[in-house]
Specification:
The complex is a heterodimer of chains A (296) and B (193). Chain A is an alpha/beta fold and 296 residues long. Chain A has one domain (2-29, 37-287): Purple Acid Phosphatase, chain A, domain 2 (4-Layer Sandwich). Chain A is 26% helix and 25% strand. A seven-stranded mixed β-sheet of chain A has the order 4-5-6-7-9-8-10. A six-stranded mixed β-sheet of chain A has the order 3-2-1-11-12-13. In chain A, a hairpin with a 2-residue loop joins strand 11 (253-260) and strand 12. The radius of gyration of chain A is 18 Å and the shape is globular. Residues 1-21 of chain A have low confidence and may be disordered. With 193 residues, chain B is mainly alpha-helical. Chain B has helices at residues 2-30, 33-57, 68-85, 99-111, 115-122, 148-153; strands spanning 161-166, 169-174, 179-184. Chain B has a three-stranded antiparallel β-sheet, with no helix packed on it. In chain B, strand 2 (169-174) and strand 3 form a beta hairpin. Mean pLDDT of chain B is 86; it is low at 1-5. Classes of the chains: A alpha/beta (296), B mainly alpha (193).
Chain lengths: 296, 193
């Protein structure tokens, strides 16, 4: 009975927070619980410039106290030249301490990435433009939003349909919702992907492309983050809109995330170590399976 | 009655001719020239992919590696092999008879977009280097997103080639060799400000 009440309470919190458009915002950020899944998120990071290195140093410092073992890369992992030297200057050197600590990076491709970078082993893409991987009670769906052809769409449909993990997290480069002045929401992509995300109960979506941080008010029950200032920054480009739950565009940022049971905690940190957003998302109830004709 | 027999045989001959004509006419009516042009386009794509496979077969396979140099060498060798094998390729060889259909799909898509949306779709399309058949897609240029709603309408391509825009041109790009396979100049209509 207690379990039932707890489940009902959790469902109520999820429904209320989804309806109100806000994640709960504890001041403390990620709780650093034992046995939780801890991961960081960076987007548009591969510049090889000083701010990328400085932010990477802050990530490393955090990793020592909040031992995340996974980094999801939201695309534009290498800007400009895609030669061997670029991989060293724009990835291996800035994240050397994290790589040395055994942290694994899982990349999505952005419009500045060569598609053949999927063969670069430290990005764990298994030679694929789009792929999935699982960690604890979470399944990640990594998409190539730069070329969303019918074949990839069919693949996503099949993957989402057959996934039964507690959490379904999708990430890719182009945001379905964004208040970035430079790019904004990718409407074509939204029309194409959102119905699948709703149908199969995707919980959270991370993207980059706009060089800002923005937390979007839940859309059709799904939480969206734009985290595209992991190296690049377009200062002042966040044009706050009715979509915006929170945002920041004055410095480079990365995200810390922690999935503990039915809660996902997040914390957004700048180059100076300042926390500019934090909160917790209660896992949404799974969508009811579609009614078949015999059930009518 | 020879007269009757002759008439009967004439009627029979005429009926047979009519039957053959109607069968031929029906056969002709069944051929959709647009579908035929697109079928030929697919054949040319498959021929290109056979060539790509043949050239790649002579190289060590592209595998996951910690060494980006090896990835780069594979791409360069594959591109060089393909360039040599189709040294006489020229613009329009692959799009050929299907070109007008591609133009129409892109034109219709542009008409269904707001000016703002059309600009947004083309914002990151590289414009500095005009595309050239058998040239590398410029390494430092962004791979501008092809809007999914256009991809949905264009003939689906097998793995190994893809559509991209460069300037106002639609190109076919070899995804393994980073090579421009063919181009369709001025496929994107101009959008008024």
């Amino acid at each position: 009975m207690r379990r039932l009440l707890a489940a009902l309470a959790l469902a109520l919190v999820a429904a209320v927070s989804a309806a109100s458009g806000a994640a709960q915002s504890p001041a403390s950020g990620v709780p650093n619980r034992k046995d939780s899944l801890k991961f960081a998120a960076i987007g548009d990071n591969g510049t090889g410039d000083k701010p990328q290195y400085e932010l990477a140093a802050v990530m490393s410092a955090w990793q020592r106290q909040f031992p995340f073992d996974t980094v999801i890369m939201l695309g534009d992992n290498i800007y400009g030249g895609q030669g061997p030297r670029d991989f060293v200057d724009k990835f291996e050197n800035p994240y050397k301490p994290l790589l040395a600590a055994g942290v694994k990076f899982y990349a999505a491709l952005g419009n500045h990435d060569s598609q053949t970078n999927r063969f670069y082993k430290p990005w764990n893409m298994n030679g694929e433009r789009y792929y999935t991987f699982s960690k604890k009670n979470v399944k990640f769906f990594v998409l190539d939003s730069d070329y969303m052809d019918p074949k990839q769409l069919q693949w996503i449909d099949n993957q989402l349909k057959s996934a039964h993990d507690d959490w379904k997290i999708a990430y890719f480069h182009h945001p379905l919702y964004s208040s970035g002045g430079r790019h904004g929401s990718e409407v074509d992509l939204r029309v194409t992907l959102e119905p699948l995300f709703v149908k199969y109960g995707v919980n959270v979506v991370y993207s980059g492309h706009d060089h800002i941080y923005e937390r979007i008010k839940p859309q059709k029950g799904i939480y969206y983050f734009v985290s595209g200032s992991g190296g690049q920054l377009r200062g002042g480009d966040l044009k706050k809109s009715p979509l915006t739950a929170a945002g920041y565009d004055s410095d480079q940022t990365f995200m810390l995330n922690e999935v503990a049971g039915d809660e996902l905690f997040f914390q957004v940190i700048t180059r100076t170590g300042k926390t500019v957003d934090a909160g917790v998302i209660a896992r949404q109830p799974k969508p009811k399976p579609a009614e078949t004709p015999s059930q009518r | 009655m020879p007269m009757t027999l002759s008439l009967k045989s004439n009627f029979a001959a005429i009926s047979a001719v009519q039957l053959i004509c109607s069968v031929l006419a029906a056969g002709q009516a069944r051929v959709n020239p647009q579908a035929e042009a697109m079928a030929h386009f697919s054949e040319r794509i498959n021929a290109y992919l056979s060539l790509q496979k043949k050239v790649e077969g002579k190289l060590s396979s592209q595998k996951e590696t910690k060494d980006p140099e090896r990835i780069k060498i594979h791409i360069a060798n594959l591109a060089e092999g393909i360039r040599l094998a189709r040294a006489d390729a020229k613009a329009g060889d692959v799009f050929n008879g299907a070109a007008e259909q591609f133009r129409q799909i892109i034109r219709e898509d542009a008409q269904n977009r707001s000016v703002r949306d059309a600009f947004a779709a083309m914002r990151e399309v590289p414009t500095r280097t005009p595309p050239k058949v058998n040239a590398d897609y410029p390494e430092t240029a962004a791979l501008a997103t092809v809007p999914p709603l256009i991809l949905k309408r264009l003939q689906q391509l097998p793995d190994g080639v893809e559509y991209r825009f460069m300037g106002r041109d639609l190109i076919l790009r070899d995804t393994k060799a980073n090579l421009i396979v063919d181009l369709l100049p001025g496929a994107v209509p101009t959008v008024g400000r």
